[in-house]
Amino acid sequence: MRILPAIFANACLAVSILGFGNLLKPLFPGNSSRVDRIVLTLIGGLGILGTLLFCIGQVWFSRTAIVLVLGVGILLSSKLIVRVIRERRQLVAGLQPPGLPLLIIAAVLLITVVGGLAMPTGDMNDDSIAYHYLGPTVWLRHEVIRAVPDELLTYFPVLMETQYAALMSIGGKRAPQLFSVTSFVVILLAGAALAIRMGLDQKGVWWVLALLAAMPVVYRGVYGGMVDAVFAAFVLLAARVAFDAEQLKDFVGLGIFCGFAIGLKFSGIVAFCILLFCTFLAVFWSKRCAPLRMLKYLGFTTVLAAAVASPFYLRNWILYGGPFYPPPPALLRIFPGTQIRPQALNELVTAVVDTGLGMGRSFLDFLLLPFNLTYHTANFRGAGGVGLVPFALAPFAFIRKPRDSFFIALTLFTFLEAVAWFLTPQVSRYLIPVYVLAAIFGVLGWQYVVRVSPRYGRALAGVAVAISILYGTWMTASERKEDVRAGLSAKFEEQRRLRETPYFESFEYINHQPSVQRILVLYPHVAAYFIEKDYVKPFGRWGEQTIPGAETASQVMEQLPSLHVTHVLDVRTRSGKFDLPENPPGLRKVFERENERVYEVE
Amino acid sequence: MEIISENLLAGDKIGQQKRQNFTEIFWPRLIELWIAASIVAFVFIRILGSQQGQRVLGLLRNHFQS
Q1: Cα separation of A67 and A232, whole Å?
Q2: For A486, which of A158, A370, A479, B38 is 20 to 30 Å away at the CA?
């Protein structure tokens, strides 16, 4: 019973996504395959639904509003679903997946489904707990989408988070976890779409999918509220549309998909610029379109992408003083964060720089990047890395393939994406678009090796693929074994929540005690996501200050009457002390554990 | 004239032979070497060099020492 609402919510969202995505059907490329059409529908739907929820949520974000929006999508999908049911045999006709890749994909999918049923646990070091899930929780409580002042990162574009909110509203806190199944399917289908376009046969495509499923860093972008895999899918499908672009409708499609990518993450802007450049070269090289007309089309694409992404940036500009909020270091001079404390911004920038150091930024480091990403993955927060195939086999893809404009544009795109990533924070999962392409190049290279060296080369390439997949599956399984256990056993899940969530018992008290209506949380590193009641958090983890004139706990306590809180949560800080003295005046201790205390305001 | 063209032809044949040797013998061996080296490096650095790999090696060491 505990899992049914989550499954129901995800099913509703998936159907609604298909309904909205179907609206973009006229923009799909003329040479699109069946897989292209399915994944473009899915990803287009994700973009439309996320943007729509965001726009409506600026004024009304109750469950009714969410159900209405999802309902429209479901209605729109009705024709499509009837057609799919009618043509179900034709849809799967000709699908003859080889056993081994299918087994690998099925195993990882099973882990994703069962692990996705587990309740979120963790602390403020977990991005999902700290902000991906925090924003939606607070929006639903306040019935309006606004950034959470005590967490700077909730100001980021939130195209995916609006959908997490929809899932939470219908299916509870477990539902966004299960969304990993959709993310997994989307990134695999995006890989398949490009693999087919690159000329791989069905067997080759299935092996690409198996390699992707067993690539730990790609998988890390799929689950636990991470948005990197969906972002990669947006970028890759924009590339799929872009490099075959010929008519105006293709450029419209490109603009829309790029707009969604920009609405999902700031780095979508960089990807968009690279895509524009590569598209220009691809179309120019293949002489599909007159240069002047193409420039006109690309200009139109830029305007369209800006328009599609604009709600996320305009909201920040209107409400908080700048479109890029919090501004990345490169944009600080143009768009200074007007309402952000300089200390908080410094703290954030330092953290971003520290986590993205990688293994250096010299030219030699760039040349060594393929080696380092394969063998020293931990230096890039690599979540287990990319396996062996991209390094061992992908280089041979560039010898074998006949040089058509799509292949060349995609190769250039891969290279420029890697350069852009190298110059910005070097966190491995931000490079998922390149890893997906590396898997495709890997299989192309594998086929070349088998042809050139049919005996030893074939055997060695087989060993490289086997090691890659076994290693990746092992890493994924060990990373998710706790999630899977929690998904299967309610008892274990409870024990795990208690073990892995700091101050869990206080959260339980606060959430279940009817007298608690609004709580003051003094310590910045308490994960407010777990609090199901209205809360005030005067200090954020980056140094955010949400109460004017209150810079210390004692100054906050002086303003206590004006905060209208019924309870105060005080926990042992890193210094080992509590913020409040043993018996603070005007407060009565109602709950206590070794590291946490809850007071009632008298 | 005949001697020159014969020499050219012979040179051509040698060149062709060299190219053939490269594509049929040297190049495939180079590819095999690259893949084999990648595999060995992966086994040593990523698998045996990882924490879990070290743990397994430790267990094996203890087993054989005892």
Answers
A1: 28
A2: A158
Rg of chain A over Cα atoms, rounded to whole angstroms, equals 25
10 Å CB burial of residue A536 (0-12, 13-18, 19+) is buried
Backbone angles phi, psi at A162, to 5 degrees: -65, -35
Cis bond before residue A101 (omega within 30° of 0)? no
Q: Chain A closest CA to B1's CA: distance in Å?
A: 40
Question: Looking at beta carbons, which residues of chain B come within 8 Å of A374?
Answer: 38, 42, 46
Using a CB–CB cutoff of 8 Å, tell me whether A446 touches chain B. Answer: no
ipTM of the complex: 0.88
Residue carrying structure tokens 């991209």: A390
Helix (H, G, I), strand (E, B) or coil at A406: helix
CB A278 within 8 A of CB A412: yes
Q: What would the two tokens of residue A582 be?
A: 């043993």
**Cβ pair A471:B38 closer than 8 A:** no
Name which of A455, A106, A43, A401 is nearest A256 in CA terms: A43
Q: Which of A376, A428, A453, A455 to mutate to test the interface with B (most CBs of B within 10 A)?
A: A453
**pTM, entire model:** 0.93
Indicate the DSSP class of residue A119: P
Contact assignment for A452 to B36 by CB distance below 8 Å: no
- Using the Cβ of A374 and the Cβ atoms of chain B, whether some distance falls under 8 Å is answered with yes
Instruction: List pLDDT tens digits, range A14-44.
Output: 999 999 999 999 999 888 899 999 999 999 9
Task: Express each pLDDT in A128-181 by its tens digit.
Answer: 999 999 999 999 999 999 999 999 999 999 999 999 999 999 999 999 999 999
CB-CB neighbors (< 8 A) of B38 in chain A: 374, 388, 391-392, 464
Task: Sheet containing A567-571: give its strands across.
Answer: A534-536, A518-521, A567-571, A596-601, A587-593
